[in-house]
Amino acid sequence: MSVSIDLFAQLDIRVGRIIEVDDIPGARKPIYKFKIDFGPLGIKQCAGGIKPYYTKEQLLGKQVVAVINLEPKSVVGVISECMMLSSFNETDLSLLAPDKEMPLGTKVA
Questions:
Q1: Three-state SS for 50?
Q2: 87 belongs to a structural domain
Q3: Owning domain of residue 26
Q4: Among 53, 62, 77, 81, which is least packed by CB within 10 angstroms?
Q5: Tens of pLDDT along 77-109?
Q6: What is the distance between the alpha carbons of residues 87 and 95, in angstroms, rounded to a whole number?
Q7: If DSSP codes are grouped into helix, strand and coil, which group holds residue 18?
Q8: Tell me: the pLDDT tens digits for 8-64?
């Protein structure tokens, strides 16, 4: 399936920093709740099923790349306001991040 450049351009992809990581008790699958700081764009909450791949300590303070203009969605009772981007296969997952420190809220294109 092809996506037009106009449709792709509607995504607001930004650099953020994970400032809080919590377990979500009662979830069927291992999942974390995050607070991600996007600098002048504010702090957004996110839920992600990456617990099998990262410890809380590995995630706290990490810069990530996320889509920040998705419609909020309830995930296991947590309102997720953005989506961190990752590469993954059947056995592993890696969060996408800038290869050097970037200002929070920096646009990704």
A1: coil
A2: yes
A3: 12-95
A4: 77
A5: 999 999 999 999 999 999 999 999 999 999 999
A6: 6
A7: strand
A8: 999 999 999 999 999 998 888 899 999 999 999 999 999 999 999 999 999 999 999
Alpha-carbon span 104 to 5, nearest angstrom:
25
Q: What CATH number has the domain bearing residue 22?
A: 2.40.50.140
Domain membership of residue 108 (yes or no) is no
Nearest-angstrom CA–CA distance, 102 and 95 = 16
Tokens of 83: 């989506």
53's tokens: 């791949």
| Structure tokens, 49 | 């099923």
Residue 5 confidence (pLDDT) above 90: yes
Distance CA 86, CA 96 (A): 5
Cβ 49 vs Cβ 95: under 8 Å: no
Number of domains in the chain: 1
